[in-house]
Request: fold
Amino acid sequence: MKHQISQFKDTFSHFAVAIITCCLLLSAQSQAQSEETTRYTVAKGDTLWDIASNFLDSPWLWTELWEQNSQIENPNLIFPGDVLIISSDSIRLIPNKRLTVNKLTPQIRATPSFAITTIKPGRITPYLTQSIIVEPDLLESAAYVLQGVDGKIILGKDSRIYVKGLEPSDATEYMIFKKGRIITDKKAGNIYSKSTGTDYGTEGVHLGMARIIRHEGEIAELEIIKANLDIHPGDRVAPIDKPTELPRYFPRRPETQIDSLILSIPKGLNEAGRWDVVIISGGKSDGLEEGHVLQVLSVRGQIRDPITRKLVTLPENRIGNLMVFKTYEQVSYALLMETSSAVKVGDHAITP
Reply:
């Protein structure tokens, strides 16, 4: 009898150890899964960049990890109430059921107007509609104001104007601007040896907007619908491109190696920080697209070695990220998304 009791105790002991071990393994597995997978419910006011920054080591990895949901009409749009399942190797979307219309096949998701954007719209909207860079070979051929229809040469809102050289297009609204600063890397060349002394174009100074009335031959008649400054004969006119929809900006790294310079900071600033706009070298011809993210490197230039008296080039330091949001052939507008110190003309921007 004692032997049976002893045997029972041994069996029970082994069984208890097995149960405890199993529980510990399940607990460890559950803990590992919770550490590797994050479940996040999208809230009103969120931006795609903020979510990516909070849950990914590198926000530009978003599109590489994003798993498209074929059951959703537009799987790229994210709405408040949606749930994101984020891990180190994937991002999955569970749509808010309240926004889903149940049909047999295919499923169609309602598309309200409050899908979250990549960034706060107000940060770049003025640059989409009121900024222009005209490349050197296009500036002299750009259309220009002749005079007011009534003969006036100082023009403002509601004035009708004659414009020469306006090419027929589908555009209904036009930007009126005068020549501003030349965008060049000559200044950057003082501290960055890869500058070429190139003039990339001229930044236009926004004067106002006009709509087309009629077009006869090489002369068009337009009506000024908005004027920030006085408009004069000789001021230039260009069609307004339809801006990219903000929700379509998805942060991603370029497919090619980009080697770019900070050429200019709009409004004549000497330094820029987070949420400021910069103009960089590189554009469509280099493979840059809206949504591409580049790392910003601070260029310290050269100093003279106090012992050898020779020039020494100081190493570059990573100081932030920028996202391209408007491209031309050779230059682009970009928004500084993160900065740890001031960004200056001549600093470097490269593929991360």
Summary: The radius of gyration is 29 Å. The longest helix spans residues 2-36. Residues 267 and 277 are 10 Å apart (CA to CA). The chain has a mean pLDDT of 82.
